[in-house]
Amino acid sequence: MATIEIRDLRLSFGALDVLKQLNLDIAEGEFIVLLGPSGCGKSTLLNCIAGLLDVSDGQIHIGGRNVTWEEPKDRGIGMVFQSYALYPQMSVRGNLSFGLKNQRLPKAEIEQRIARAAKVLQIEPLLDRRPAALSGGQRQRVAIGRALVRDVDVFLFDEPLSNLDAKLRSELRVEIKRLHQQLENTMVYVTHDQIEALTLADRIAVMRGGVIQQLADPATIYNKPTNLFVAGFIGSPSMSFLDGHITSAGGAPAFRTGDLTVPLAGYDGAVPAADGRAVILGVRPEHVTIGPDGAGGLPATVDIDEPMGSDSLVWMQFAGQTLSARTAPGHGLAAGQQVGLGFDPTRASLFDRDSEQRF
User: Is the model's pTM score more than 0.85?
Assistant: First the structure.
């Protein structure tokens, strides 16, 4: 296991800053996920750690050693790419042993490492097959195994599951998590898939425009997003946002949108003074309750119902804005029906409209 320390890292292509004075500390044995949309800099950061890109400024330390200008082979890392990058003319055994032979390791040690990796990844029956005879999931296991046999302290994953179908992604996600629990190596994993991030990570670094927007454990990222971007990026569907301002209701702060007022008693944050300040209220679909015929809540109109098997997603019009709620299947709600909504202020998020930061 090894720590990774990134200090004031900057990478520019001409006048374009791709990574901007980035700092990140990764503990021994930690599973860090770099999450964000395309072009946010997550894969670029991973390639800098791997030594595949030369940085413009800053330093990278792995295991306490400054590796900023070292070659990839000297950094003590194993990397798994989005493409399997297997040698088609070689068997699985040949693919796993190729790098080890180049290191001139003894044959007995090579066989020992291959056997250990094959057992961990459950690919022992596949060792004599060629990549063309493997499924996509099996090929990705081999690609992971090629990194595993190097016996390194740090593993880097660059969107390794994005080429697989949904079922295989789910299965391999479990395998990667199990692999981390067994090996306890430091792992850095790049993805744009928030489900992968939430299920795999010890901590998630949400990136945008070459900057880490928030670095925290999955529960904090999901329940207390630091800004509007993180709140909207995390969640499927994403958090619903209502535009309004702060007011006062019975002497207590409240959120007002249109002619409707939502009390904020118990909000887990610092509600600004009731001075008409422009804010945005964010609510997760599972934190919205629906009452029939507008009873016991704020008036809304059902727009669309999306049955999703284990639950249903109901989209509604509320104060001229769109909001979603997660409900049990068979709820009996129909398009155009009037309902009453309820919010739990303790589980909502309140953002400043100008800065987009969470209060």
Answer: yes
